[in-house]
Amino acid sequence: MEKSDILRTLQSLAPNSHVVLFYSNLDAKHELVFPFLQEAIQKQGVAVYAAEHESSDDLREAMRHWGIYVDRYEREHSLIITDHLEFMEAEDRLNGLRSSRLLNELMERLMKLAGPIRVVVDPTILARHGTVDELLDRERSLGRHLDLPLTMICCYEETLANVRGGEFLIEILQAHSHAIFPGIVLQLT
Questions:
Q1: What are 155's strand-pairing partners?
Q2: Phi (first) and psi of residue 155, to 5 degrees
Q3: What's the rounded Cα separation, in Å, for the pair 150 and 148?
Q4: Smallest Cα–Cα separation from 20: which of 161, 128, 166, 167?
Q5: Which of 8, 79, 134, 152 could pair with 73 in a Cys bridge, judged by C-beta atoms 3.0 to 4.6 Å apart?
């Protein structure tokens, strides 16, 4: 499958979709997730990028290079760049029916503009540092279809597919509605 076909699939995902994307390098990931996020902003929505192993400054620079007006969109609160741990804390608070700044911003933006909310999360570094069980629990708890009206792509380096002799890959596939590998899109529902 060509990159343009994968991009069309990503752009057509419905709210509540929970997608896993395995990537070979950061550039390959950016080529897919940046247009996905940019389209949300262009449709008066919110784009969130939560990552640990990419510094916020490097990520902002990569987005600028891609043509995303990072400074403007962050000022307007239509682009939120955060780290994965802050996003997990916000998710925990939501699950506990407590509020958080990050999720409040997302929901406030959605209520005002009725645009899409698209989230890209990259917990690769957590998987590398031995928190696989916790990470899998989080992915399973989100389910194949999210309760929130947002579309989420969980990104992992393709080398993680072999963690625990492939058990990680099987568990991750069971927790998502779609899987994207270099050149392949699978609908898992």
A1: 21
A2: -105, 135
A3: 6
A4: 161
A5: 79
- DSSP label at residue 147: S
Helix (H) or strand (E) holding 116: none
* pTM recorded for the entire structure: 0.86
Q: Which long-range contacts (CB under 8 A, 24 or more apart) does 156-162 make?
A: 156/20, 156/21, 156/22, 156/23, 156/122, 156/123, 156/124, 156/127, 157/22, 157/23, 157/24, 157/124, 158/22, 158/23, 158/24, 158/182, 160/22, 160/124, 160/127, 160/128, 161/22
Q: Tell me the one-letter amino acid at 76.
A: E
Q: Which of 92, 86, 84, 91 is nearest to 127 (CA)?
A: 84
pLDDT tens-digit map of 34-72: 999 999 999 988 899 988 778 888 999 999 999 999 999
Phi-psi region of 76 (alpha: psi -120 to 50; beta: other; left: phi over 0): alpha
For the chain, helix (H) and strand (E) counts, in that order, are: 9, 7
Token pair 């390959």: residue: 28
List pLDDT tens digits, range 71-130.
999 999 899 998 766 655 555 544 443 345 565 665 665 556 668 889 999 988 877 776
Domains of the chain: 3-187 (3.40.50.300)
